[in-house]
Amino acid sequence: MTPDLIEKYGYPLEIHKVITSDYYVLEAHRIPYGRDQNNESDTNRPVVLLMHGLSSSSAEFVAVGPASALAYILAEAGYDVWLGNARGNYYSRENLYLDPDDRRNLDFWRFSWD
User: Which of 26, 31, 80, 91 could disulfide-pair with 18, CB 3.0 to 4.6 Å?
Assistant: First the structure.
């Protein structure tokens, strides 16, 4: 959903996979610049990381469209926008060694955010 929405509205998109020290694979979405004529891809921009709340995903920062969504507003204001996804959500249900769908072994879900 997040990548589709970003591309639907004509924004540049990068998808990055981040592997944690305990082998979770987290997906981050990047909007490196806005879509208006004042935004150039080769400009150094301040970076902002948007991180969703519990039980959500990066989609909460793009779902309502360019006029109201924080990710697009920041990209148009000249920021390099990164959208994080916490382990276990729709975009980060992966581990190099554990299966989130294995009902006999729930080790994938034995983590905390502390």
Answer: 26
Of residues 70 and 38, which shows the higher confidence score? 70
Least Cα distance to 6 among 96, 91, 105 occurs for 91
Please give the average per-residue pLDDT across 38-58, as a whole number: 87
> What is the chain's length?
114
Q: Is residue 113 part of a domain?
A: no
Domain assignment of residue 45, yes or no? yes
Q: What is the 3-state secondary structure (H, E, C) of 36-102?
A: CCCCCCCCCCCEEEEECCCCCCHHHHCCCCCCCCHHHHHHHCCCEEEEECCCCCCCCCCECCCCCCC
Residue 10 included in any domain: yes
The C-alpha atoms of residue 111 and residue 77 are separated, in whole angstroms, by 36
Quick check: is 114 in a domain? no
